[in-house]
Amino acid sequence: MSFLIKVLRALDWGCGQVWQGFNSVTSRLLSICALFYRLLLGAFTGPACLGLFVRELSRQIYFTAIQRAYILIFTALMLGMLVIVHATQQLVKVQGEEFVGWLLVTIVVREVGPVWAAFFVLLNSGSAITVEIGTMSVNGEIRALQMMGIDPYRYLGVPRFWGVTISLMSLYILCVFAAIIGGYLFAQAFAEIFWAKFWLSFINALEWIDVSVGFAKTAIFAMLIATVSIYFGFSATEDMGEVAQNTSHAAIWSLVLIGIMDICLTAAYYL
User: Which domain holds residue 59?
Assistant: First the structure.
């Protein structure tokens, strides 16, 4: 009898922990959704401060898309090389060179390209945004802005939200072009594919639906990264230890949400 009571207590404790974790995740997810709506409309509502918005937006774009773009270009060239080196050697053996363009469109334009650029922005800017806003929150600067009648979400969050979105869209285009050029160069060097056949295969395989899906994924990933990073930055209120912890949480949440949205969009494409 006592053993049965212990088992029931353990089950009750386990169910309570699961329910508490579920409530915590759901509450945080709803808060992120509310912040997303607030940031999405923040640039079009409230008092006009165009000069300040443009200044902060430009700074975020420079930091995210320009300052370290060469790293993304190099990795995109390597992505194109990997696709060509590992695929074309087999395609040439079976005279399937016409599928090279389809591979580049599927892997670079529609599937891996948006995720590749999103990971770069997450590593480069997502954590930086969380640390920056979290440090300001811990030091009382957020409270000072509120005491002066300034909305900190509109002053700090909105420019970073749109800056990350515009930057990731630009980096996605750069990533696609670099990967295609890299694939072309390595196709000429390591695979017996005539240059005209390479470009003709790519152009014939590329469709507007592929470009649309790629841009849709990129825009959604950018907004997710920005929203989650800003949310966890504002959530830090105690000390710098909490800032470090929230930075880790922001990265994990961004990765999970990007994975979920990528699966959903890919499944919607194939339906």
Answer: 32-270
Helix, strand, coil percent content, the chain, rounded in steps of 5: 90, 0, 10
Question: What per-residue string of b and e applies to 35-62 under the rule 16 or more CB within 10 Å gives b?
Answer: bbebbeebeeeeeeeeeebeebbeebbe
Contact 167, 125 (CB under 8 A): yes
Neighbouring C-beta atoms of residue 132, cutoff 10 Å: 17
Please report which helix (H) or strand (E) contains residue 98, including its range.
none
Would you say residue 24 lies in a domain? no
Residue 239, phi then psi, degrees to nearest 5: -150, 180
Q: Please give the C-alpha separations between residue 10 and each of 16, 24, 116, 179, in angstroms, as whole numbers.
A: 10, 21, 44, 54
For 66-217, list the strands marked E by DSSP.
Answer: none
Query: Can you tell me the distance from the alpha carbon of 37 to that of 31, in angstroms, rounded to the nearest whole number?
Result: 10
Domain total of the chain: 1
- From first to last of its 271 residues, what are the pLDDT tens digits of the chain? 566 666 666 776 677 677 777 777 888 888 888 889 888 887 677 655 677 778 888 888 888 888 888 888 898 888 888 877 777 666 666 666 667 778 788 888 888 889 999 999 998 888 899 999 998 888 888 888 888 888 888 888 889 999 999 999 999 999 998 888 887 787 777 666 666 777 787 888 888 888 899 999 999 999 999 999 999 998 887 778 888 888 899 999 999 999 999 999 999 888 7
**DSSP state letter for 238:** S
Quick one: tokens of 208? 């507007």
d(CA 90, CA 35): 49
151 in a structural domain: yes
